[in-house]
Design brief:
alpha/beta; seven-stranded mixed sheet; six-stranded mixed sheet; 13 helices; globular; binds flavin-adenine dinucleotide
Amino acid sequence: MANIIVAGGGNGGLVAAIKLAQAGFKVSLFESKSKDNLGMAQTDAFDADTFSYADILPSPDFKRGANIITFFPLDKSVAPLTIPALDELSFIVDRRDLANYMFSLAEEAGVDIHYETAVKSPIILGNRVAGISTDKGDFYGDMIIDACGVNSPLRSNLPDSFLVKREIKNYDVIYSYRAYFDKNKSVPEPETNYNLYLRNNGNEGFSWLITEEDRTDALICRFYRPDDSEILESLRNIQEENPQMGMQLTDGGGRAIIPICQPLGILVCDGYAAVGDSAFMTIPLKGSGITFSFKAGTILAETIINDDNGFYDTEALWAYQSRFFKEIGSGACRLAILKNILPYLTATEVSDIFRLGLVTTEEISAVMTDKAAAILNKNGLTSLKNKIKIASDNNTIKDILSSLLVWLGKFTVIEASYPSKYDRKAAIKWVEKYNDFFDSIRKID
Ligand SMILES: Cc1cc2nc3c(=O)[nH]c(=O)nc-3n(C[C@H](O)[C@H](O)[C@H](O)COP(=O)(O)OP(=O)(O)OC[C@H]3O[C@@H](n4cnc5c(N)ncnc54)[C@H](O)[C@@H]3O)c2cc1C
């Protein structure tokens, strides 16, 4: 059986590793962190069908719950908007527990895990990715799965001619700071416990405060890298609005980058596939990527198992890419287009959108999950036209919504040119059109 290398213990890579090892492949995984320091100091939510899609049993210790989010526009005279809970309860899990669980399943399945080994670059032989260079030496494999996350040194060191690499540009990622503070129990419980502040402090981004039973969870996100003083100011600002937030840091306090853009146009080349954040597979409006990673890892493992020739070349791996775009990428791209209007809006305009009733709770609920199709289908476009009429007195909002309508139409045409079978010329044409389109709608500062 073939030798599979999984670079980085991202969620999609772990899912693929488990499934391939169970199918009899020899799988080696290289993770930079030590075994006792896996995951992140934060609790995240992900979709109810995440484990069932991958046909992996969740840990019985994983909790499920409903996050009921309330949006607060900057203008305090505009009423906040509370999003109803989804029907299916999400998983809400500490990321250290999730990582420890997935790594333990990988070990049980027979994956050879190299902890504390940093992947540095791909090893290229001819037109193929043939291995990885790490700080512990070089390793060769028949197929390399890139699960190193958003800053993957594999993706970013691939030759341009492999068509996979894409530079991270403005508004493709958000810069986050996440920290847990104690809870001031001397003040009454807040009316809403998941408060999301759009354009908090008037800056490009958002912040939230989630009030849990015994602690509070603060997140600051910006389209640019905020300095420490801006983070402190935002924390103070959130604390003023939420006196239940204590001042004692109890967990987390780290910075990270979250992709919020369209996925890579091409995910594969000979001997290589990107999965999860290394391929920008998140829900673009909120940067949640655990569910997409699990699903993509499952599709990738099935594609590798079904490659009877065992070449793991672009032609064979194209099945992974096509199924990903059909099931997930197409909706994610539409959400990326929708997200793209945010940088064009000022804080006042965001408040005006709420004031004019241009977004409904159902619409926000749909875009906060990956149910883009629900709002960006034919009916959605009719409702977008109605919104343009409602906004007729506000030229900026009207123009932005009109652009959105045009962008969605253009993307539908580009999507129709996706080559369902791999052909290098067609693939080059596709990725050029795809990248040029998203560049054309990006706000230039
Ligand atoms: C503040 C914050 C909040 C989030 N909230 C949510 C949420 O609520 N729901 C949700 O679904 N998603 C959320 N996400 C996004 C989520 O973390 C990712 O989308 C998801 O984990 C998929 O990414 P990944 O598993 O591919 O990569 P990652 O989670 O980045 O994992 C990459 C792995 O590779 C390892 N690695 C990295 N570089 C190397 C290297 N050079 N060599 C070896 N190993 C390496 C890392 O240590 C890590 O183990 C959040 C992210 C952040 C930062």
